[in-house]
Amino acid sequence: MKAAGFMVAVTIAVFGLLPTSALSSTLELAPKAETVGNVTYISGGVGKSEAAAMRSIAKDYALEIVFVQKQKQTEEFLAEVNVQIKDTQQNIVLDVITDGPYLLANLPQGRYLVVAEYDGNVKQQWVRVGINKHQKIVFWWPIIDSP
């Protein structure tokens, strides 16, 4: 009886520790997903831990967008990028301001125009979202030198 009780206690203790596993920690560090219409998305990736969490879950989303500004010797990740994703009829299916350098989105299968604006500079790119296919695009902005 005592051995069985001990095993139950050990089992409860082990399963009680599971939420602190690496997978759970990664999910806890990632921002919460939001849904607009039929698009589910996550925006974030500020700081090393949150960026790592976003990268680890990116493959679970149909579209991964990264926003970067080239500096003199390095690249700097950007936040507060205005993003619109439009379908082929130019209907806006997602309109957000990013909370970090990563935007992950699950969109219905189809072709979309991604329009991103940062500091008055607009970039755009077409992307095709397929079933069980991950697409990644990176928007680069040049450094803007101050006068």
Shape annotation: globular
> Number of helical runs?
3
Low-pLDDT residue spans: 1-26
Termini separation comes to 80 Å
Plain-language structure description:
This protein has 147 residues and is an alpha+beta fold. It folds into 2 domains: 29 residues; 111 residues, Immunoglobulin-like, CATH 2.60.40. The strands form 2 sheets. Strands 1, 2, 3, 4, 7 and 10 form a 6-stranded mixed beta sheet that branches. β1 and β2 form a beta hairpin. The longest helix has 16 residues.
What brief labels describe this structure?
147 residues, alpha+beta, 6-stranded mixed sheet, 23% helix, globular, disordered N terminus
Describe the secondary-structure layout.
Blueprint: H1 2-17, H2 22-29, E1 34-36, E2 39-44, H3 48-57, E3 63-70, E4 75-77, E5 82-86, E6 92-97, E7 102-106, E8 110-118, E9 121-129, E10 135-141
Parallel strand pairs: 3-10
Antiparallel strand pairs: 1-2, 2-7, 3-4, 3-7, 5-6, 5-8, 8-9
Helix pairs in contact: 2-3
